[in-house]
Amino acid sequence: MKKRIYVIISEEPVFHPILAEGLVRELTPEHEVVGITLAIGDTRNVAFTSRLAATIGMFGPRAFLLLSLQGMVYKLLAIIGVRQKGVPFSVKRVASRHGIPCVTSFNVNEPSHIALLRSMHPDVIISSNGHIFRKELLSIPTLACINRHTSLLPQYGGLWPVFHAMLRDEKKTGQTIHTMTSTIDQGHILAQEQFAIDEKSTLYGVYARSFRSAAALIRAGINNLIDGKMTEMPIESRTYFGHPTRQDGKIFRRTHLLLRISELLSRCS
Asked: Are 244 and 58 in contact (CB under 8 A)?
């Protein structure tokens, strides 16, 4: 039976338009994407200046400047309406292209947004954003809220999981689709995939790899959810990390590549 899917996703021009376009393609016509919320910012109550300083410390000035320039160019391309390989540079344009209702929220837990979600009667809510879902939101879908996380949970929960995995010289990582609970990056595992980290891997490249295949993995996760095929997350082996420190960034840059110029130019190709 066709399920009603609602997507709550970050509006950034690099990875999330590819995920949004992929979800529409992968989930239709088996299911129906009934709406999209653009979740702006995050709800962790961290000052913008503190987030900015932490990000510069993590990436270093050069990589931070390159990523900032890429973001500005891509946002301009989004305004103009340019597509790359058929994919726009904004989630909002993906929604418009497919005739999907789209709203913006700075806090997905606010009453007006909760009321909107209830009116959509979703069976599944997909999360890929920086907002923390509270209990009221988590209770809305008939099946579950599900999240996409770029690690093999329960290992490397939290922020920047690929960075922390590479910093610790892991030889593999992956991504996990899981049901959401009031505790971040817990719940039941619905689907996972694994990929290698080698000497040629960059932080940017690993994230790009994950977003290329995320939509197909989410579809598999939703179908497993419908069929009741899920695995309890072994909490005893859980690891969790916060935002990388300036020192973490320095150590990382001595032995690993953050990005290549060619990757910035090609988005996720």
From this structure: yes
The number of CA neighbours under 13 Å toward the Cβ of 60 is 14
Number of domain units in the chain: 1
Kind of pairing, strands 231-232 and 4-10? Answer: unpaired
Q: How far apart are the first and last CA of the chain?
A: 34
Has residue 140 got a pLDDT over 90?
yes
Distance of CA 240 to the CA centre of its chain: 17
Averaged pLDDT, 218-247: 94
pLDDT at 201 over 80: yes
Query: Domain limits at 116?
Result: 4-264
Query: What CATH code is carried by the domain that includes residue 228?
Result: 3.40.50.170
The answer to whether position 19 is within a domain reads yes
In a domain, 41, yes or no: yes
Count the neighbouring beta carbons within 10 Å of the beta carbon of residue 185.
21
Report whether 166 contacts 203 (CB < 8 A): yes
Question: pLDDT per residue over 143-153, tens digit each?
Answer: 999 999 999 99
Q: What is the 3-state secondary structure (H, E, C) of the chain?
A: CCCEEEEEEECCCCCHHHHHHHHHHHHCCCCEEEEEEEECCECCCCCHHHHHHHHHHHHCHHHHHHHHHHHHHHHHHHHHCCEECCEECCHHHHHHHCCCCEEEECCCCCHHHHHHHHHHCCCEEEEECECCCCHHHHCCCCCEEEEEECCCCCCCEECCHHHHHHHCCCCEEEEEEEECCCCCCCCEEEEEEEEECCCCCEHHHHHHHHHHHHHHHHHHHHHHHHHCCCEECCHHHCCEECCCCHHHHHHHHHHCECCCHHHHHHCCC
- The first and second tokens of residue 258, run together, are 């953050």
